[in-house]
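Consider the tokenized backbone below.
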């Protein structure tokens, strides 16, 4: 990330905010650790697009995720009768659901076997949350070895090449600017892909609909300065 930011160091001062930096829109990170995965160029882009959409504040809830972090997020989002991810991600979810199912039936099965004549009592073990997450992370690693980094989630892509960001839609201030903000983000040539909040309708090739309420952005780190959508 340092190389990327160094390469952007020659961006004109007025694009960085200059004397008007105090009036720049507020980009808040829900997790301090995520700041290092978002380049200065991407932050400049976001602020400029926020100004264009008259948005004063947003909150970034997620950026790059390691396999372990991605597994934890997927575990937290598990739904008993619903798949939240497609293809490879669904296979990771299935690892957790299979373990959970086996853990649920294990006590009853062990008891039933132990009741059979001449059979010694049968023991069983169940898995902790952390053990299940570890199994999910292993499956993510296995899939990535076979299909490439990012096959489960784009959040796992190299942040020096692609900044992947989730923005809480409810954090967009003022709330009435949300729709226009999404339009501005979609129109930006610097945003390669955008995930719309659940319930939206994807109308363009670069759009898709999220399973949650966030706005998902993908910003390649190879764009030139003229693609920063400067409106300052």
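A designed sequence for it:
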């Amino acid at each position: 990330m340092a190389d990327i930011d160094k390469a952007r160091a020659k961006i004109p001062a007025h694009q960085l905010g200059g004397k008007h930096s105090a009036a720049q829109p507020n980009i808040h990170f829900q997790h301090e650790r995520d700041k290092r995965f978002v380049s200065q160029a991407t932050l400049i882009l976001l602020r400029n697009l926020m100004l264009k959409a008259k948005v004063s504040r947003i909150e970034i809830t997620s950026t790059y995720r390691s396999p372990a972090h991605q597994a934890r997020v997927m575990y937290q989002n598990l739904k008993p009768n619903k798949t939240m991810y497609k293809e490879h991600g669904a296979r990771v979810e299935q690892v957790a659901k299979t373990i959970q199912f086996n853990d649920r039936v294990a006590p009853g099965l062990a008891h039933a076997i132990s009741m059979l004549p001449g059979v010694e009592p049968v023991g069983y073990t169940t898995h902790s949350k952390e053990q299940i997450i570890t199994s999910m992370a292993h499956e993510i690693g296995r899939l990535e070895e076979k299909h490439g980094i990012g096959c489960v989630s784009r959040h796992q892509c190299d942040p020096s090449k692609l900044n992947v960001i989730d923005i809480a839609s409810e954090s967009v201030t003022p709330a009435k600017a949300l729709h226009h903000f999404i339009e501005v983000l979609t129109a930006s040539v610097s945003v390669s892909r955008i995930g719309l909040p659940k319930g939206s309708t994807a109308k363009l090739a670069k759009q898709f609909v999220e399973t949650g309420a966030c706005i998902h952005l993908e910003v390649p780190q190879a764009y030139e300065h003229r693609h920063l959508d400067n409106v300052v």
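The chain has seven helices and six strands.
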